[in-house]
Amino acid sequence: MAKDKNQYVCSDCGGISPKWLGKCPHCHAWNTLIESVAETSSAPTKNRFASLAKTAEVTVLGDIEAIDFARTPTGQEELDRVLGGGMVEGGVVLIGGDPGIGKSTLLLQALDSLQRSGQRTLYVTGEESGAQVALRARRLGLDGSQVSVLAEIGLEKILATLEATRPDIAVIDSIQTVYSEQLTSAPGSVSQVRECAAHLTRFAKASGQVDGVGRGRATSIVLVGHVTKEGALAGPRVLEHMVDTVLYFEGDTHSSFRLVRAIKNRFGAVNEIGVFAMTEKGLKGVSNPSAIFLSQHAEPVPGSCVMVTLEGTRPMLVEIQALVDSGGPSPRRLSVGLDKDRLAMLLAVLHRHAGVACMDQDVFVNAVGGVKISEPAADLAVLLSITSSLRGKPLPKGFFAFGEVGLAGEVRPAPRGQERLKEAAKLGFSVAVVPKANLPKNLKSRDFEGLTIHPVERVEQAMEVVRGLS
Ligand code: TYD
Ligand code: MG
């Protein structure tokens, strides 16, 4: 029988090469060959299938009982919100984020409350020693915690421990430190991360079955992943495909607020966010986060416009700041927390449709508090903050705006506009420029929830309204 051998698989075309090459011999892409273990039994020859004794059973969809997933609340309300209600039995969650943002802290807190509610937990630490974890636990006020800790980075040993102890929830902190003896590449390399994640995922999925049949209690696994400088989870995107749920930590490490966002969730809604505040005693959930991303100006300042963003189920108010300043021969366009390409597009729309030119100006745009806004409803606020900075004129007190801007200069409605309006009214905002289509159909006056609303259909109209206000 052929011995297990390593092979190199192209991450672009899937072509296989027996040795490492700089260029894939199949698709000629550079630097795409990744080491992996050759599975000798994986060649799907006719012979192999014919020799199988039994075929698998095929079931009609209607006959399958739709069992709701058993969810275990983690005791961290905001974490449960992004998970869609709690940890799913046998589910695999990948949680990514910058170093030092609070991944280990959050998971240790969650494990402790799970353990207290009678779940069996295991915390596998590859980055810190047991003593360091204990120190953190003490800092978090979790003295005498019953969470089991395993300081190990060998995949085979971790799997054997999981098999023997069969915890309900296991955390692997982090997947980049785990290595498999079957591969020669270093821990953290693409092939190691992929191989180890695949094995752990397979374990979680298979752990509910005792001897291939029946339903035992399956292990849920949480993988901690680091984020590279480019902002992607280190290791291949395949990691995201393998797991059931992908969560990202966002936020500025200098501010105390952290967002956990669901990027993918087989068991719940995506784009749901959980909001936490980093305190002396670890992460605390913020149940009413709508006003945390506003900076407190005593008087309105130029270049600032508040918008209402709706991420997941909760509306939040975020301040967009812009600074427009005379630039050199090649002016800079920089955005933090907002899409850079979209900024370039918006500047073009502003020029073409509202006649406001920023060609010779540096333009910087920032979403306050380290929050990332991906929805186009921020467009109008971005444009208004830019023009406000350009003119050096602040927007009126209590002003906010939202709405998507199209290339033709039209202002498109944002989803669930009335909810956004209500939230802003609740927080004491009073004047708004919003897409006309976001207003209730039969609204007689321009008064809604005590707000003075200026409905607009085009960018130039929005500019005119604002000029009249300030
Ligand atoms: P950590 O969970 O170690 O981050 P990660 O695992 O994502 O790398 O978080 C460490 C940061 O959190 C560190 O900068 C200190 C801060 N922190 C607090 O402010 N309060 C606390 O109670 C703890 C435990 C950490
Ligand atoms: Mg950590």
TrEMBL record:
GO MF, one annotated term: hydrolase activity
Short motif RadA KNRFG motif, span: 264-268
Binding site for ATP: G97, D98, P99, G100, I101, G102, K103, S104
Keywords: ATP-binding, DNA damage, DNA repair, DNA-binding, Hydrolase, Metal-binding, Nucleotide-binding, Stress response, Zinc, Zinc-finger
Domain of life, per lineage: Bacteria
InterPro entries: AAA+_ATPase, DNA_repair_RadA, KaiC-like_dom, P-loop_NTPase, RecA_ATP-bd, Ribosomal_Su5_D2-typ_SF, Ribsml_uS5_D2-typ_fold_subgr, Rubredoxin_2
Record Gene3D superfamilies: 3.30.230.10, P-loop containing nucleotide triphosphate hydrolases
Record-level GO BP terms: recombinational repair
Residues spanning the membrane: none
Region (Lon-protease-like) residue spans: 362-470
Record-linked Pfam families: ATPase, Zn_ribbon_LapB
GO cellular component, one term: cytosol
Keyword Kinase part of the UniProt annotation: no
CDD domains given in the database record: RadA_SMS_N (cd01121)
Positions of the RecA family profile domain: 68-227
Function: Can catalyze the hydrolysis of ATP in the presence of single-stranded DNA, the ATP-dependent uptake of single-stranded DNA by duplex DNA, and the ATP-dependent hybridization of homologous single-stranded DNAs. It interacts with LexA causing its activation and leading to its autocatalytic cleavage.
Family label: Belongs to the RecA family. RadA subfamily.
Domain text: The middle region has homology to RecA with ATPase motifs including the RadA KNRFG motif, while the C-terminus is homologous to Lon protease.
Listed name of the protein: DNA repair protein RadA
Lineage: Bacteria, Pseudomonadati, Pseudomonadota, Betaproteobacteria, Burkholderiales
